[in-house]
């Protein structure tokens, strides 16, 4: 039986193995994903991003508990950075989610970025697809804690939460405008700390300077204390309101189209590059080409032109 | 451009309260290029085994100080067998009396490291012992 068939039959190990194959970029993983694709498109994807230590994982844990009480099955993808020096990684988000580890209705997978920029790993979208095919109602994706450029999540999730902490209001000016544009919902976590209300006010003020159409979604700013679960029920309700709005406004159609477009383009880029790069490197032609460029008998621009012309002919 | 990356789960079962040893091990494996799933303190054997399966790790490293090693470590191996996941290697580390080691190995623990072992020794052992997928 293929991994895909075993996954559809509910086998956890098969799902975990396919995620590994996807992460390791084995060609066979594409065949399995192909088989699973018709079984995807049912899960609701929630992205959670924000600076390191803001409480993202603690919030994921609480939001998961809330969805479990409502009888939903939850998949979690937690991304942490790979060390650029050793290629290794410590994936520690599970520490905050241990109580769900042996719940059959929850599947948690930790992923390392493996050099991919943008806050997610290359494999995140496909791993989320596997969870979708496994029948998870909700898939929650926690990005690495960088705080500025993790825009990839917006193209993947239906609803994106940006988590901040009190006191960050002072820094909001310094935060790239990007972060104010990616959130469908803003959360000021650690509300037990001083200055939470002020941060909520400042964030709301900054958001009001964005331009909104009459019919568009206005991102709310909410307060939580993830450690104790305070404000989490309200947060989940707001996430559901956003989902309802997406459906009622028809916005979901363009969102899903954009998402598939982004995934398609990524795949195309990756495959095209591999197609040209593999033979180039293996044949030794790459070294010759670099020699010529260094000796200034060729230049990178013509080298790429020639290479593409040759590839496209064949 | 496919590449097999080794994955290991490092955790600390039982009730006693500090995880310095486990953290040192986690860092050593990261520095050796592993992806380390670090699950922290107070894990039950059930939680450890479920996490190891969901994360598809090659190996589980458990740090233990509490003296409960004779029940907790074999329990992990038993659950792995029950879930047909006993291809995942398990090693233990900590203050474990010499006399207990044969019993642990008989229960399915592949290796036991006592405080004399260096992190280099442990990493080198795992690299050799892991069966490539
Ligand atoms: N005071 C307080 N601390 C909290 C709250 N929520 C989380 N924390 C603590 O903040 C620390 C970081 O929490 P995490 O959930 O690991 O944060 P994170 O954003 O996932 O961190 P990274 O994944 O490392 O970026 C932990 O010690 C939590 O216990 C809260 O509401 N109040
Ligand atoms: Mg986290």
Q: What's the number of helices of chain B?
A: 5
Task: For the largest sheet of chain A, list the strands in their spatial order.
Answer: 4-2-5-1-6-7-8
Q: Supply the number of structural domains of chain A.
A: 3
User: How many domain modules of chain B?
Assistant: 1
What bound compounds does this protein have?
guanosine-5'-triphosphate, magnesium ion
The termini of chain A sit apart by 37 Å
Shape of chain A: globular
Helix- and strand-based class of chain B? alpha/beta
Oligomer: heterodimer
Q: What's the tally of helices of chain A?
A: 13
Strand content of chain B: 15-25%
Radius of gyration of chain A: 22 Å
Alpha-carbon Rg of chain B, integer: 14 Å
**How far is the first residue's CA from the last residue's CA of chain B?**
17 Å
> What is the assigned CATH homologous superfamily of the largest domain in chain A?
P-loop containing nucleotide triphosphate hydrolases
Of all chain pairs, the largest interface belongs to:
A-B, 33 and 36 residues
Instruction: Provide the CATH topology of the largest domain in chain A.
Output: Rossmann fold
């Amino acid at each position: 039986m293929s991994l895909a068939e075993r996954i559809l039959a509910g086998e956890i190990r098969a799902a975990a193995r396919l995620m590994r194959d996807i992460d390791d970029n084995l060609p066979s993983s594409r065949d399995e994903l192909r088989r699973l694709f018709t079984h995807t498109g049912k899960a609701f994807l929630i992205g959670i991003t924000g600076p390191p230590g803001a409480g993202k994982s603690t919030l994921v844990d609480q939001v998961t508990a809330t969805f479990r009480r409502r009888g939903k099955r939850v998949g979690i993808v937690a991304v942490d950075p790979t060390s650029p020096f050793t290629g290794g990684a410590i994936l520690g988000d599970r520490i905050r989610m241990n109580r769900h580890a042996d719940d059959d209705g929850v599947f948690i997978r930790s992923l390392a970025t493996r050099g991919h920029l943008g806050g997610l790993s290359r494999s995140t979208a496909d791993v989320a697809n596997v969870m979708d095919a496994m029948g998870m109602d909700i898939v929650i994706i926690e990005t690495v804690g960088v705080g500025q450029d993790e825009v990839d999540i917006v193209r993947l999730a239906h609803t994106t939460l940006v988590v901040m902490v009190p006191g960050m209001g002072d820094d909001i000016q310094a935060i790239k405008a990007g972060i104010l544009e990616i959130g469908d919902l803003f959360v000021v976590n650690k509300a037990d700390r001083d200055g939470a209300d002020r941060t909520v006010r400042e964030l709301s003020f900054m958001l009001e300077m964005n331009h909104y159409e009459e019919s568009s979604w206005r991102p709310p700013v909410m307060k939580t204390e993830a450690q104790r679960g305070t404000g989490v029920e309200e947060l989940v309700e707001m996430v559901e309101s956003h989902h309802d709005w997406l459906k009622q406004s028809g916005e979901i159609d363009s969102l899903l189209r954009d998402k598939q477009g982004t995934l398609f383009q990524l795949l195309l880029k990756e495959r095209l590059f591999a197609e040209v790069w593999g033979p180039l490197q293996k044949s030794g032609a790459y070294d010759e080409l670099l020699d010529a460029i260094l000796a200034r008998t060729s230049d990178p621009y013509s080298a790429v032109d020639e290479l593409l012309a040759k590839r496209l002919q064949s | 451009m496919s590449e097999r990356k080794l994955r290991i789960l490092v955790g600390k079962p039982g009730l006693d309260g500090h995880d310095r040893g486990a953290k040192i091990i986690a860092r050593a494996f990261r520095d050796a290029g592993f992806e380390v799933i670090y699950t922290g303190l107070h894990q039950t054997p059930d939680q450890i085994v479920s996490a190891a399966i969901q994360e598809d790790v090659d190996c589980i490293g458990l740090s233990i100080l509490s003296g409960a090693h004779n029940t907790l470590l074999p329990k992990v191996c038993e659950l792995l067998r029950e879930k047909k996941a006993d291809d995942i290697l398990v090693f233990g580390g900590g203050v474990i009396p010499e006399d207990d080691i044969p019993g642990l190995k008989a229960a399915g623990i592949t290796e036991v490291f006592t405080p004399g072992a260096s992190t280099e020794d442990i990493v080198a052992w795992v690299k050799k012992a892991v069966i490539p997928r």
